[in-house]
Amino acid sequence: MGCRSCEIACAVEHSVTKSIYTAHLEKPTPIPRIRVILGDDLYVPMRCQHCRDPPCMAVCPTKAISKTDEGFVVVDPLKCIGCTMCALACPFGHPRFASEKYMVKCDFCVDRVRRGQLPACVEACPTGALIFGKIEDVMRYVAEERARAFVSAVTGLIEFRPLPELEKVLKVTSPVQDILNSYSKVSWYRG
């Protein structure tokens, strides 16, 4: 919905104080590693995709970009010289300058994940548009949500009727049903 709660949570998480009340007072002001961009009337959260074979890491001349054991692609600000090669190589246009002249990018809040917490952006999202987990778990969750949405949409369209009425509507008859119908007026048979 474009509320940008994820951006605020990300900036606060990457601040020195880690407080929403004081982070904006810090110098330099912390910047979010996720951006919400409006594209074709839809808000899209853009963040690092943590590629399996990251092009940003391949082009970094100082090896400031590396992968953690969890697979997150991170920047070491002490090694980064701010050459912007990573930003040019990224197909998602993700790495960008911090005010201290080094590059920043989403690190998936690796320290939070190691403590068993969700990334700050995911935790802050009020609509559940951002989810985090192993691909198998995420895909299972998405499939279940889609199934629930489908069922709730379909049940509003389908009118459930008892089977005899349905047979009349569909005009389904069988030879057995024809025999039962012919005897339906006989008093000893109650159909």
Q: Please give the count of helices.
A: 8
Low-confidence stretches: none
CATH architecture identity of the domain at 50-104: 2-Layer Sandwich
Q: Termini, distance in Å?
A: 57 Å
CATH C-level category of the domain at 50-104: Alpha Beta
* Integer-rounded radius of gyration: 29 Å
What percent of residues are in strands? 5-15%
Structural class, by secondary structure, is: alpha+beta
Helical residues, percent? 25-40%
Mean pLDDT across every amino acid position:
85
The CATH topology assignment of the domain at 50-104 is Alpha-Beta Plaits
Shape: elongated
Describe this structure in words.
Strands 1-2 form a two-stranded antiparallel ribbon. The chain has helices spanning about 5-15, 55-60, 85-90, 110-115, 120-125, 135-155, 165-170, 175-180, and strands at about 35-40, 40-45, 65, 75, 95, 105. The mean pLDDT is about 85. The protein has about 190 residues and is an alpha+beta fold. It is built from 8 helices and 6 strands. The chain has a domain at about 50-105: Alpha-Beta Plaits (2-Layer Sandwich). It is elongated, with a radius of gyration of 29 Å.
Summarize the SSE layout with pairings:
Layout (H helix, E strand, L loop, with lengths): L4 H9 L21 E5 L2 E5 L8 H5 L5 E3 L5 E3 L9 H5 L6 E2 L5 E2 L5 H5 L5 H5 L10 H21 L7 H8 L4 H8 L9
Antiparallel strand pairs: 1-2, 3-4, 5-6
